[in-house]
């Protein structure tokens, strides 16, 4: 059960990051257009945030890793995504008024909206690998599985969001739905870890 939840969190995190990236492009387009500089700003910001998240996640995973902490990372990434759902328009309007160059306006907007949640999301894969590795002999195999599932989730997030969800729902509805799923997955992980740990605490 624990192993399945770790893989589920890794896969959903991959889905979530790519879906947010695509939706970020739609959110910025009314203010800064859909040119290559907008997507360049979004992609660069996401790559930078993920790389920092990988580094932090690797360091954090050395401190008594647990499913509960991994689930809390997902919950924290979701919590810091709330401005994307609730305050994106005021933030984008503020940047649009103060930064006339659309290149830097798109970059600053991406930073304000996405840097923190994407950085925290980036911590999940290395942390998941640390939870699943039980010895040096299986580290490569575990890392391969985690990155496969995470990237598969990213692929699903890209296709489902761009091919279907944006045609069926409003932008805020999609984001709200993803936030609800993230909170649900994080809550299940926390409860599952607590249930497993209680007998040991009473011993």
Overview of this structure, please?
The chain is mostly helical and 203 residues long. 87% of the residues lie in helices and 0% in strands. The protein is built from nine helices and no strands. The chain has helices spanning 2-32, 36-60, 67-79, 82-86, 88-98, 102-122, 124-132, 139-168, 171-202. The longest helix is centred in the last third of the chain and has 32 residues, at 171-202.
Kindly list the characteristics that best describe this protein.
single chain, 203 residues, mainly alpha, 9 helices
The radius of gyration computed from the alpha-carbon positions, rounded to a whole number of angstroms, is 18 Å
User: What is the helical fraction, as a range of percent?
Assistant: over 70%
Secondary structure class reads mainly alpha
**Total DSSP helices:** 9
Shape: elongated
Mean pLDDT equals: 91
How far apart the termini lie comes to 22 Å
Query: What's the helix-strand series?
Result: HHHHHHHHH
Which residues form runs of ≥5 with pLDDT under 50? 197-203
Fraction in beta strands? under 5%
| Biggest sheet details | none
Total E-strand runs: 0
